[in-house]
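REVIEWER CHECKLIST
Item 1: Sequence provided? yes
Item 2: Single chain? yes
Item 3: Sequence as submitted:
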Amino acid sequence: MNFFKKITNSISLFFSKIFLFFDRNIIKKLKERDLLKRILFTLMLMAIFVIIGTITLPGISVTNESGANSNSFFGILNTIGGGGLRQFSLVSLGISPFITASLIMTFAQTKLFPPIHRLYQSGPAGRIKINYITYSLTFVFAIIQGIVIIQSLLKDSSNTSYIKISIDDKFNNTVFVWIVLPFILVAGTFFSMFISELITNKGVGNGSSMLILAGSIISLPSLFSSGWSLWVESKIGAELFRGLIYFFAFILLFIAMVFIISFIYQAERKIPIQQTGVGRSKNVKDLSYLPIKLNPAGIMPIIFASMLITFPMLIVNLIHEVSPSSGTRWMIKYFALTNPLGLTIFASATFGITIFLSLQQSKIDKIVEDFNKASTFIPGIRPGEQTEDYLIAIVLRLAVFSAIYLTILGSSQYVTYILLDHFGKTNFQSVIISGTSIMIITTVSIETIQQIEARKKAQNILKASKKDQISNKDFEPSNKNQENSGSVLW
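Item 4: Structure as written out by the authors:
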């Protein structure tokens, strides 16, 4: 018995030492490093989202999975939703219904809709009500979008441009198809929004952007593997050498697009500003600047334009499946983004939404109001209305450039698709680089890195202030001791 007690005590002592080691060297450091915990938490949530995106809905069989990556409406939904549509998973819709609802509420917050505009300007309480309205619209759009996608992918047997689904015989009934499956997709949407909110509040980066980033990153391996199999695999001799050149040129094109997008994203127009009184700068070098981004609207105009075209076309697809007609057949053919007419509509929508969002997100009226409160002015420009007109003119010029840039970037993949189809080079369609996906990956990565750096600086400042407080506390008693010892000696 004593022998077993000794063994038990030694084992418990061993594990207690291991626990103390981890507690002192790892757990304690993790508790002190808030930024590291946020990064790990974000990666964990993104991994959970990706894993759930591989779980197909119950009773569903998926074929032609690669079709979700094509230049169809469902390919757009797959990218914006987070990549779950590829497997027709529990999170197939992702956050795309929320993006559609947000698009509508973004337009509703303007002065064109006074009730919503008053809520927007009424402070936190009004914005909470706007959030409730957005969530309600998300629920409605998720139900509609879920039913439309299920019926379109289930009934359409002629089109091979996107995935196909089939239902097992034991699940093939009206209640399951029209009620159970759509509500599972709705639950998946709100679960995606829950993960998004957790990332935004307790992780790093914007939650919605991070989920879209996950869907875009997932598609990269298939893109490069398609290029490798097209140009390099099973090639010998001169064909292999030529294929390697094409493949490395393909990679260089990808890197060049990343560089251009990151450069334009970080470019700013700096407007010199001054303050009256003591804060006024005497030298040009000492002037402060108001930075305005070269692309004020970011990636959102392309996403909004895609959703603006995709959602109505999904309904047209469903109507065509229920009762085919020449009108719906014409719309499906000519309003596709791979058709010149549909591409023109998409480019026009991207251009107009970019101008609108650039002017709205710049918030010139708020900037002018803050200038008046802080006695700040632009040299050579009168405060008030003249300053507002001056800033609107600058933002409008930047918005026009941004609109042209985003229109070219968002349309490039569809133009390439049309040209390849015209010249009969359909085998190259699998290696078309999506400008939208690259911009999502680049801009979201830059935003996240910038947020991490900002948090790191704030954490270092907080640590430095704590050290100063500790050193001051240690210094004060020593002075008291010296004073006391001096008085005794005196």
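Item 5: Key structural point noted by reviewer: The domain at 36-222 is CATH 1.10.3370.10 (Preprotein translocase SecY subunit).
Item 6: Recommendation: ____
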